[in-house]
Every structure is written in C-alpha cells, then in structure tokens.
Amino acid sequence: MNTPTTATALIAEDEPLLATALRADLAALWPALKLLPTAADGQTALDTALALQPEVCFLDIRMPALSGLEVATALAEDWPDGGRPFPLLVFVTAYDQYALQAFDAQAVDYLVKPVQRDRLAGCVQRLQQRLAQRSPPAEALAQTLDQLRSLLGQAAAPAAPRLQVIQAQVGSLVHLVPVDQVLYFEAADKYVRVVTAEREHLIRASLRELLPQLDPAVFWQVHRGTVVQARNIVSARREESGKVTLTLAGHPEKLVASRLYAHLFKGM
C-alpha cells in the first residue's frame, strides 16, 4: 500500500503535553503526514479545519468553547460544497467503557487518553488505508453523517421536565411566552432568539440547556443552532448541497436544515 504523501492533519487538544506527545508520535509513525498548528479549543479547531480542509482531524471530546462532537457537527454542517472530501475523524477521549462502545458501534476511530503508541499505530494504519481507498465524497459524507447522528443521540442529555412557558426578561419586565406559541428557537451568541408569529424575544440561555426540556416529537432540531416547532413547517425543499430550505406558516423568514438533519424531511 502506498502511504498518502500529501495528507494533512489537525490536532485539537487543550492539554499542551498531550498535544505535544501526539504530534511527536504521529511524526514518527507517519513521517509523510503534514501536521497543522495545534488548535487549543473547539472554535479554533472548527475555524482552522474549515479554512485549511485537512484530510484528518484528531478531536478531543472535551475542549473549551466547543466539544469534539460539536466541532464534528459544525464541520458536517458547514463543510464547503465542492471543496476537498470531508475529513476522516478521530476522537480523543477519556470516556468510560459505555461511551467507548458507542464509538465502536459506529465504526468511528477513537484514542483513549493517555494515548498508547501501539493503539495510535493501528489508528494510523486504518487512516492510511481509508485515504487510499476512499469512497466517493458524497458517499463518505453520508456515512459520516449517519455516524454523527448516532453519536449525538448517545451523547444527548436525559429528558427534563417539559417546559411550558418561556420567561423572557426585558429590563424589569418579564414576558411570559407559552412554548406552544414558539415558531422556532435560534442560537444568537450568548442568547437564544425565541420567535413567535407576533414578535421575538431574547433569553440568556443556550440551546443545549433548552433541548432536554422540549418535546422532540414537537420541536425538531434542524441545525446545531436552530430548533423549530414541526407543525409550523409548511414545506421543505431539498437543495443540491444536501441542505433543506424550510418555509414556515405565516412567517416570511426561511430556515435552513443542515445536512446533518436533512434526513428528517422525507416523503411518505
């Protein structure tokens, strides 16, 4: 087998000693691999990967700003159309055995901290084989999307008591917004936009906090930053990119369902 000579890799790891050791071991095991500067947090990893489009990403599961799974999700949603094939993902994790079984079930490669040299050698061999025998880009991306959906389901927070009313404060005034009147929720920096047919509110929360309190049969996550009440979706148009454009009843603003959630919209 010919080892790829032009492969590049990004390491996302917030612990400098671990990142340095991984770089050194990769340099020894795969001399032809070009290593990009290490990303010390999830947002830097995401920005670097989208800009430089490496063939391989080593993603620490627990990082500041964004977790490894959140980086992978964002890459799947924002990977440039017509660019290089979606990168091969390797998760670096300290998770317990139950979580590792989830990775095994999805055929996703992972490394356990502290990374052992022989385990890394096996990982490198598998990566080289996959790069040499890559599926067509669309097929490879579809497989990755299926794997990420399953992993996200495994990592989802347990259901919490269902939220009935949103309390949106503006100064000294608190607006009480029944959840069943919400068209969609959208992440906006450190806030979440709560959009109804009449107006919108900002609440200081995160979608990660809200999701376990919403009924998933009623509120569908269609993007890492968007959750929409399904009954308000009038139509869904699939685009060539694999994304889906959503039209809502009585609302001029269209929403986009990313490739990761496009599978929700299939004809019966």
Descriptive account of the structure:
- It is a single chain.
- The protein is an alpha/beta fold and about 270 residues long.
- The protein folds into 2 domains: about 10-155, Rossmann fold; about 165-265, Beta Barrel (OB fold (Dihydrolipoamide Acetyltransferase, E2P)), CATH 2.40.50.
- About 30% of the residues lie in helices and about 30% in strands.
- The chain has helices spanning about 15-30, 40-50, 70-80, 95-105, 115-130, 135-155, 205-210; strands at about 10, 35, 55-60, 90-95, 110, 165-170, 175-180, 180-190, 190-195, 200-205, 220-225, 225-230, 235-240, 245-250, 250-255.
- The strands form 4 sheets. It has a 5-stranded parallel beta sheet with strand order 2-1-3-4-5, with helices on both faces. A 5-stranded antiparallel beta sheet has the order 10-9-8-12-11, with no helix packed on it.
- α3 (about 70-80) runs antiparallel to α6.
- The radius of gyration is 20 Å and the shape is globular.
- The protein starts with 7 loop residues before the first strand and ends in an 11-residue tail after the last strand.
Fold blueprint:
Layout (H helix, E strand, L loop, with lengths): L7 E5 L3 H14 L4 E2 L6 H11 L3 E5 L7 H11 L9 E6 L3 H9 L3 E4 L4 H16 L4 H19 L9 E6 L2 E6 L3 E7 L2 E6 L3 E4 L3 H4 L8 E5 L2 E4 L3 E6 L5 E5 L2 E7 L11
Parallel strand pairs: 1-2, 1-3, 3-4, 4-5
Antiparallel strand pairs: 6-7, 8-9, 8-12, 9-10, 11-12, 13-14, 14-15
Helix pairs in contact: 2-3, 3-6
